[in-house]
Design brief:
Low-confidence stretches: 16-30
Structural class: alpha+beta
Number of helices: 7
CATH superfamily: Gcn5-related N-acetyltransferase (GNAT)
Shape: globular
Number of domains: 1
Number of strands: 7
Strand order of the largest sheet: 1-2-3-4-5-7-6
Radius of gyration: 17 Å
Strand content: 25-35%
Mean pLDDT: 87
Length: 212
């Protein structure tokens, strides 16, 4: 682990400790999420999702893998990508949701993916918002609903989240929900044609319920 990595880990530890001491969101079961909702994608949502992807192309490429490839935005490839998500939902492999605000606008997308059953009972979570709806606290609320869905509806035991080291807002969002930092991986994910370091967080069902 290089010097930069140690600095990131130290910062996250201090942030998490401060939040727990100040009760700033961590474990706060009273978080009001009534102004947003998440819903599984359907065939009928395709046009709206297509517009979301195209309108936020430059914004999403900063944090979402694969969005730096122009081929991704070819109509047939976008359609194939969306259909593969519908199939994954049907087969119980991953679950893809739309995030809507209080007036029904599509604010972003969140998902449970790499779902494992058997002895693991775990999945990873991800979330990305439109440029218009970022930095409004929507991500934390959407992830709250997503984690609750993962534990209560899908019966999972462990939820994990990974972010590139520079994505501090995403790290803050999961820490506020009670996730614990558990490690870092160098050159972990290819983003904008560059291998990026990632930090990893997790929470298990009993910890989630104890903090609510």
């Amino acid at each position: 682990m290089n010097e930069r990595s140690f600095l990131v880990v130290g910062l996250l530890f201090r942030l998490h400790t401060h939040w727990e001491i100040e009760n700033f969101g961590v474990g706060n079961g009273g978080q009001d999420v009534s102004d947003i909702k998440i819903e599984l994608i359907t065939e009928a949502d395709y046009r709206e999702v297509l517009e979301f992807e195209l309108n936020n192309r430059e914004f999403l490429r900063q944090t979402v893998p694969g969005r730096d490839d122009d081929q991704f935005y070819q109509p047939q490839n976008l359609r194939s990508f969306y259909e593969s998500q519908l199939v994954a939902i049907e087969q119980g492999e991953s679950f893809f949701y739309l995030i809507r605000n209080r007036i029904g606008e599509l604010a972003g997308r969140c998902h449970l993916y790499d779902l494992m059953r058997g002895a693991r009972q775990k999945a990873e979570i991800g979330c990305h918002l439109s440029h218009q709806h970022s930095r409004q606290g929507i991500a934390s609320k959407a992830l709250h609903l997503l984690v609750r869905e993962a534990f209560d509806t899908h019966g999972l035991h462990r939820i994990e989240a990974s972010t590139i080291t520079s994505n501090i807002p995403a790290q803050m969002a999961v820490l506020r929900l009670g996730f614990q930092y558990y490690g870092m991986s160098e050159a972990y994910i290819l983003l904008n044609k560059e291998w990026r370091d990632c930090v990893h967080f997790a929470i298990v069902n009993r910890e989630w319920k104890a903090k609510r």
